[in-house]
Specification:
elongated; alpha+beta; two-stranded antiparallel ribbon; 5-stranded mixed sheet; Heat Shock Protein 90
């Protein structure tokens, strides 16, 4: 389909050029020579081939078309190749601007503006009519360049939209996997922080019960309290899985301090140094890394000293967790409760926020975890406002529109000034006045209503300049060329007067399965007010300018004549400005429909991803309620009964249940419904999808 569209324009060009030959050649005073026909046919053939390749090699296509145009104008009669120096060059400039970098496009447009009129200038000279014709040509080239820049912007937008939809599709496909990984990390954190502490303290009390009997009571109290905390954490997780993700805390400093204090209650020395305002994704990742590092220190280096330090360095948060060698030089996971997910989980947390983490032995013994996490100020402070950004292509298009409107008004003014016999100074002053009139078009996309007001204000200066004698009264007709600027301003108000895309996210605007409402568009009536406003702001100053010398059409400027001619002018201006407004509004509507379709597709993908994640959370919630929560109840009842053996068995069974739940998540399966078994010393222990069973401690 794309190849067919690319070949359609060259075919139409060849047909149109052939029709032009049949209509213009018979009217020539002298029949074209054989050389002229060969040149014309060759130039047309080269132009057709270049147009067919304009999207693949736009710069080379423009060069071929310019060469064919110049040679055709030199070696063939001017009327034989009317479309090559006109339509073909404009099309090539459009393609170069749409497909190439802006510097290349600007250079190509300038080269075409210099090379294209050379044969005419050599034949007729550089004064008079050729200058006016050259200005018209430059204006048309700038229009083609503006359209090409707009096309380049639309192509980039479409590509960005395709990439966004592709990312959303990939995220939807991976939504269940991502949610399983997130829940697995949450469950691992709960089991590591709470349950590991219970097992370690109970095992220590059992081993040292003969020499230190007071540890038994402390261990039972700690087990009861920690099991209740575990139940509370799990129930909060279950509640979150049923409704959505839990909101991030505003500050993570207090939770990290509470976490460190909890480990300090186990009797190990911990030194800490933290910033007072740890917030954002980096702080959340630091909380998880510190929790995992402290748990590993408790498990593999019992009794060793630990140091936690976090500090900011530029836009990064540097985190270090050190633990020394355990007393007596012994280490290792003696209780046998490690899950093997700790270091990998810390790496995932750091990578999730774009950071890096290393973990390994220290030179003097012990272990060190070091992380560097991006923590830019924008991630710590909420954004209170936003600025609408414009791409380079959009700014180039606005500059090209300004240039084309200014050049078109110059051409009209210079032609009439030359016919009226005005000198260089008057022509230069007219060009300056019309340039100031067109200058606001540089901001037409960013503030179209202000641009329209500024253009109307500059038009009010014209009758003042004419009546004060700065400009001769006979130059009033030269200022009519400024109407091109008003047309561009009215188009800009209709096309860009209201934001095309609301500030809210797509999912917040539409229901998951609904399509965006495309009823009567907002701002329709407000936008159309630009037409009567521009008619008055341009028509009244122009009427006053024509009447600056006291006459209209050679008659005394009486009230009746002024009103009659003003009415006619306002009607004609209204028709022209309505056409410009309609073109802008059609473009506005087309863009709104494109964005609405993109938003609807994105909303559907986001909704599908949310549904998959919600389903995964609900399955995990069922597994938690039926397995782990029951086991933590056994820990509490055993601690209240005062049996260290039962507490140890129940704690290990709870860890085993959590590990099986984690295994089901890692394998990409839904948590299996537990089957109650009778295991000696651990009643109520469930048998998961794996073959091993939880044994009593």
């Amino acid at each position: 389909m794309g190849i067919a569209r690319g070949r359609l324009l060259p075919a139409l060009f060849a047909v149109a050029q052939s029709v032009l030959w049949f209509t213009t050649v018979p009217t020539l005073e002298e029949p074209p020579s054989t050389t002229a026909w060969v040149v014309a046919l060759s130039a047309t053939a080269f132009t057709v081939v270049a147009l067919e390749r304009r999207n693949r090699t736009p710069l080379a296509a423009l060069g071929v078309i310019l060469a064919a145009s110049v040679l055709g104008q030199v070696l063939a009669p001017p009327d034989m190749l009317g479309l090559v120096p006109g339509l073909a060059v404009l099309t090539a400039i459009f393609s170069v601007t749409a497909r190439s970098d802006w510097t290349v496009a600007l250079g190509a447009t300038a080269a075409a503006a210099v090379v294209q009129p050379l044969p005419t200038a050599v034949r007729h000279g550089f004064g008079g009519a050729p200058v006016s014709d050259w200005l018209i040509t430059v204006g048309l080239y700038l229009v083609a360049s503006a359209l090409g820049a707009g096309r380049r912007h639309r192509l980039r937008e479409r590509q960005a939209a395709k990439e966004q939809l592709a990312r959303a599709e990939r995220e939807r496909e991976q939504a269940a996997v991502t949610e399983r990984e997130r829940l697995a990390n949450e469950l691992h954190d709960i089991s590591a922080h709470h349950l590991t502490s219970v097992v370690v303290s109970v095992e220590a009390a059992r081993r040292l019960g003969g020499s230190r009997p007071e540890l038994a009571a402390e261990a039972l109290t700690f087990a009861s309290r920690t099991a209740r905390e575990t139940q509370s954490a799990l129930r909060r997780l279950v509640a979150v899985t049923r409704v959505g993700d839990a909101p991030a805390p505003p500050s993570m400093t207090a939770p990290i301090e509470a976490l460190i204090a909890g480990f300090g209650r186990l009797g190990r020395p911990i030194s800490v140094c933290l910033p007072a305002d740890l917030t954002g994704p980096a702080a959340e990742a630091a909380h998880g890394i510190i929790r995992e590092a402290l748990t590993n220190a408790l498990r593999y280096a019992p009794g060793a000293s630990v140091g936690v330090r976090a500090e900011r360095a530029g836009d990064a948060l540097r985190l270090t967790v050190d633990n020394g060698k355990p007393p007596g030089g012994t280490g290792g996971d003696r209780p046998g409760i490690g899950s093997g997910r700790g270091v990998a989980g810390m790496h995932r947390r750091a990578a999730a926020v774009g950071g890096q983490l290393s973990a390994g032995p220290r030179p003097g013994g012990g272990w060190r975890v070091r992380a560097v996490l991006p923590d830019a100020p924008s991630a710590r402070r909420p954004v209170t406002g936003r600025r609408r950004d414009f791409t380079r292509e959009q700014r180039i298009a606005d500059g090209a529109v300004f240039g084309s409107a200014a050049v078109a008004s110059w051409s009209f003014a210079l032609t009439n000034a030359r016919n009226a016999g005005h000198g260089f100074q008057v022509c230069l002053l007219l060009a300056l006045v019309l340039t100031v009139h067109a200058l606001p078009l540089l901001w037409r996309r960013r503030a179209p209503w202000l641009v329209l007001a500024a253009i109307g204000a500059t038009a009010l200066v014209w009758p003042v300049l004419l009546r004060s004698g700065v400009l001769p009264p006979s130059t009033a007709v030269c200022l009519l060329g400024g109407g091109v600027v008003e047309l561009a301003a009215v188009y800009a108000v209709a096309a860009y007067g209201r934001a095309l895309r609301p500030a809210t996210a797509p999912a917040a605007r539409y229901a998951p399965s609904s399509t965006p409402p495309m009823t009567y568009p907002p701002g329709f009536r407000l936008s159309y007010l630009s037409v009567p406003a521009t008619v008055l702001s341009f028509g009244i100053p122009m009427t006053a300018a024509f009447a600056a010398d006291g006459t209209l059409l050679g008659e005394p400027a009486g009230p009746f004549l002024v009103l009659f001619l003003s009415g006619q002018m306002l009607v004609l201006l209204g028709l022209g400005f309505t056409v410009a407004w309609g073109a802008g509004w059609l473009m506005h509507g087309r863009r709104r429909r494109e964005l609405s379709r993109e938003d609807a597709a994105l909303t559907a993908l986001l909704s599908g991803a949310r549904d998959l994640a919600r389903s995964e959370r609900q399955r995990v919630a069922g597994g938690l309620q039926q397995t782990v929560l029951q086991q933590t109840t056994r820990v509490i009842s055993s601690a209240e009964a005062g049996s260290l053996d039962d507490v140890a068995a129940a704690s290990r069974a709870t860890l085993a249940a959590m590990r099986r739940l984690l295994g089901s998540l890692d394998a990409g399966k839904a948590p299996a419904t537990p089957r109650e078994t009778a295991v000696q010393g651990a009643p109520g222990t469930w048998e998961g999808p794996t073959r091993d069973r939880t044994a009593p401690g």
